[in-house]
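User: Once you have settled down, look closely at the record that follows, taking as long as you need, and be ready to discuss the fold:
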Amino acid sequence: MQNLLSSSLLFKNLKVKIYETILLPVVVYGCETWSHKLREEGRLRVFGNRVLRRTFGPKRDEVTGDCRKLHNEELNNLYSSPNIVRVIESRRMRWAGHVARMGRVKVYTGIWWGNLREREHLKDPGVEWEDNIKMDLRTVECGGMD
C-alpha cells in the first residue's frame, strides 16, 4: 500500500478514499472490545499520521523550493475526518451502548457487568475495558453519566 499511497499518478482524494475504505477498517477491526493504554494510542496516531503524510506528500516551500514533511496540524487541516483514535473511541462507546441496553441476559453483559477479572493475579492488571469507556466519556464531556 505504501507505493500506492505515495504514487503521483493517483489523485489525493482517491488516496484518502483508499485509506478510509481499505486500511482504516483493517486496522480498527474489533476495536470495540479493545482496552488500550496511552502507548498503544500513540502508536495508532503515528500510524495514521504516517499514512496521511504518504498520501498528501511533502510540502514545498515557495520561497526556497525545499521540501519538508507536513506537521500534524497541517495534516489535520488537510484531512478533515476524525483521527484513528477518535474512530476507535466512538465505536467503543457505540458498542458499550449496545451492551448496556441488552440487559443482564446475554453473554456480553457478563463481561460488562462483572467478575471476569482474568488479569487480577498479574502485577500490572492493565487497563480494563470499562475504564476505557469512562475515559472516552470524559473526552466527550459526559463524565456525570452512569
Summary: Helices lie at 2-5, 12-27, 38-56, 72-78, 84-102, 107-113, 129-139.
